[in-house]
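Hi F.,

I've been meaning to write this up properly since the lab meeting, where we talked about keeping a consistent format for the predictions we share between groups. The idea is simple: the sequence comes first, exactly as it goes in, then the structure tokens exactly as they come out, then a line or two of notes. No screenshots and no reformatting. I'm using this chain as the first example so we have something concrete to point to.
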Amino acid sequence: MKSKKYLVSIVIPCLNEEKLIGDVIKDCKIGLKKIKVKGQILIVDSGNDNSGRIAKRLGVEVLKTERRGLGQAYLDSIPYIKGKYIIMGDADGTYDFKEIGSFIKKMNQGYEFVMGTRIKGWIEKGAMPKLHRYFGTPLTTWILNKLFHLNFSDIHCGLRALTKKAFLKLDLKSKSWEYASEMVIKAGLLKLRLAEVPIHFYKDKKGRISIHKRMGWFSPWYAGWINLKIMLLYAPNFVFYVPGFVLLAIGVLITTISTMGLIYSFKYHFALLGLVLTILGYLMMQLGIISKIFSDLNKYYDDSVTVFIKKNFSYDRGMLLGGGVALTGIVLDLFLLVHWSLNNFQLERIPVYGTTGLTLIILGFVTVFFTFIYEIFRISKI
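Output, unedited:
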């Protein structure tokens, strides 16, 4: 039998919300009626109360799953979504599904990903703790916007919409709270057509205890932490390339200055600082290359550096380069050994270029090991 098609699928993960799930479903039906659309309402029930039975009595579809995280609940729903457009939201009664018309209107205009925003909408008194409203949400939203050149006002809003085609294209990996940030990040990296609509956000109904409160005081902090983690994982330029390049440039400059004897008083300490910064910066840039070429990031980052590396770097070239640099360092340090022996092994007369030689030896061997790792990953991708 051919599966029925809908314009809209409302997908709602549910974890023990038997007190409110009925009202949420009724609001969904009102929202669909207001826009004169017969849509699918899919409850993803991973709890152990009567939520699923209540939903079935109200005539909506229920997908029973194990409790494996909010993000996983959405992933589990993918094979059962029948609509062209997907509305996502929580089952806790804090979001108003009667407002879905504003989301559908945006998607009918060609937008592929539409975020709700509580910050630009209306927040009922007591609905959002002040720490979240004035610090946590604005701060993490600002960080994400800066890292990925976006312009959202509320990246944690649980009411959002996207086309099913876009949902599949996002290829989400997150199982828990961080799915929210991953969606926004990937939507930006894939250059989907993005929009934002203001919504109403309500406080918990009387007698309901929020999931964060059920899980303890640490839960919202952990949610913020893993959302920050996903931002950093998808920002290799910020984590690896930019700081790596800066450290490498400063390290090379310090090493050059100390080798030339331009700063005599602290020449040995200065040279050692140059060694540390050079190696650290070089390693960070190598890790950035690996992360961009051989991970999920490869779908989103194809800049000039990665294109050049993929086109020109090979096992033979890496080994020759690493071996050549290391050999140069060894030669320098052999000169140092001769100079040292000629000066009766007096430590204070050691030339600073010995540190430069040591730097080159380390850079050379690091390049050799990077070449091995690069080739292992490259072969595994064939």
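Notes:
Residues 170 and 186 are 6 Å apart (CA to CA).
The chain has two domains: 6-233, 236-381.

If this format works for you, I'll send the rest the same way.

G.
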